[in-house]
Predict the structure of Dinitrogenase iron-molybdenum cofactor biosynthesis domain-containing protein.
Amino acid sequence: MLQIVFPSNENLSYISKVNATFQNSRYLIVLDITGQNITGVDMIENPNYYSKDKLLQTCLDKKFKVLIIPENDNLNIKEFKEKGINIYKAENKKKKVLNIFSDYVQDKLIKV
């Protein structure tokens, strides 16, 4: 099972709109993925709200392996990659988590 994490200010499961940054998002939408299917959804309050420095530790603690970042998020990508966390960029045009997940499955996202 793989977990994919999206930033959002909405608590609407996979129909939440993706937020512009992890730092300013109130929630982390976590999709549990088996193959190309969503097998679970978890919405947790972002323990890193307004602090990009704590996101890496949260990912390591919860064993998140994939982050979907909006185009303008300014995370230290090198640091995440060194810890085995894959990062994909998605266009931030207020797309919903489910739409971006569909892009991920179809290899339309850019791996950074």
